[in-house]
Amino acid sequence: MQSDIGFVTRVVGAIPSTRERSAALILSDEPTTRLDRLTIHRCKAALPFGGKYRLIDFALSNCANSGISTVGVITQYRPRSLHAHLDYGRPWDLDRYEGGLTLLHPYQAHAGIGWYKSSADAICQNIEFVLRSRAYHVLVLSGCEICCVDLERLIVSHHEAGADLTIGAAVAAGKGEHGRLIIDHQGWVRRLVPVGSGAAGLPAMMGMMVFSVDTLRRRLGEDAELPGSMHDLVRDVIPRMIEDGDRVLAFRHSGYWSNLQTVYDYWRANLRLLSQTPEPFDDPGWPIRTRSEIRQPVRISSKASVTQRLVAEGCVIEGTVECSVLSPGVRVASGAVVRNAVIMRDAVVGEGALVETAILDRDVVVGPGGRAPGEMPHQAWDASASTYVQIAVVERGTHIPSEEIAESLTLSGGLFLPTRTSGQGIAVV
């Protein structure tokens, strides 16, 4: 875990009760995602990662490790899986009488209250949660990003610079997957560059920021009254703050950071964990906490072949597993081969079955001799291998019949749906 405090070089002074006078709001939904079937049954923040974790574990662990004990999780889209995982905040020591973890759902009341329109509207509808906490600073965090950040340093940077808003900035490859920041030599943000503008080389805007409470309250109130506003922090509120001369600081994060935008991003980030030093889990002083299940120990048969793998509790392996990530309760039968795959909890790969370059959601069953689809509509350029990669995604609860080769079929809702193939060899529903 590595972070630099923007470009601020002054000696850090005392700030009023950083741990006790700061609150965090975690956004569990994202307005756009290209994760296809992976987010049909769950919000993105609840997406399993690294075998036993969920994406939201990183934001919650950053709060817990930084001493932030008042945390609100804003939920709306398919929240059931996320709610079950949060378990009243126990894994992060947030099940407490004062502060702790609070689920912030949309609700019906008087005029102006209801479904969240976007991120700024969601925070505006929950501004009373922040005010009741008596916080001086409020963190707004994405529950969908993978990174380890000392949030206390972020708050200190914000306070020492006298900023109205401080935004996390990270190095990111590619051109159009992230919003970008134009930062001057003193570390102040001068402009946001929208997603898709081709601004490669500029720091990426992280889903990690801290506002002074008075500034946030005032700016959200103004935005709520503006006709034509989409009520989004990044599209509406923050650009207006910069244009009006508010002090917006960059906090440079130099460690690992990933915001999974596509199926390929998700697949590749999981398989990266198989390296010798698997970021972001390589810092024993910054543990990533999660809700652990009570499962039996991993059982690997003497006839099994297991290499370069990440296997969670409760798995039973009797076949071959190569370069794959297995969540709790996965079963790989004798003669089965799992290669370059991400398999979620309680999936079963039957005898002699083949799962390769694929993502299997929970409770998927690949019958004896069956194969996970080999030709699916997720093609991405792998720069490290200088080739295109096609990744199969099998929806939760799907059953692939025995000895069924599903190379030209898309699986959805447990049924095989016929597909047509485009000129590039990608199956399109």
Overview of the structural elements:
The protein is of the alpha/beta class and 429 residues long. Helices cover 17% and strands 29% of the residues. It is built from eight helices and 30 strands. A hairpin with a 4-residue loop joins strand 23 and strand 24. Helix 3 (119-125) crosses helix 6. The chain starts with 21 loop residues before the first strand and ends with a strand. 46% of the residues are buried. Residues 4-16 and 405-429 have low confidence and may be disordered.
Question: Secondary-structure blueprint of this entry?
Answer:
Blueprint: E1 22-27, E2 48-49, E3 53-54, H1 56-65, E4 70-74, H2 80-86, E5 100-104, H3 119-125, H4 127-132, E6 137-142, E7 145-147, H5 151-161, E8 165-170, E9 180-183, E10 189-193, E11 204-212, H6 213-224, H7 233-243, E12 248-253, E13 257-259, H8 263-272, E14 299-300, E15 305-311, E16 316-317, E17 320-326, E18 331-332, E19 337-343, E20 348-349, E21 354-360, E22 365-366, E23 379-382, E24 387-390, E25 392-394, E26 399-400, E27 409-412, E28 415-418, E29 420-421, E30 427-428
Parallel strand pairs: 1-4, 1-6, 4-5, 8-12, 14-16, 15-17, 16-18, 17-19, 18-20, 19-21, 20-22, 21-25, 22-26
Antiparallel strand pairs: 2-3, 6-11, 7-13, 8-11, 9-10, 23-24, 27-28, 29-30
Helix pairs in contact: 3-6
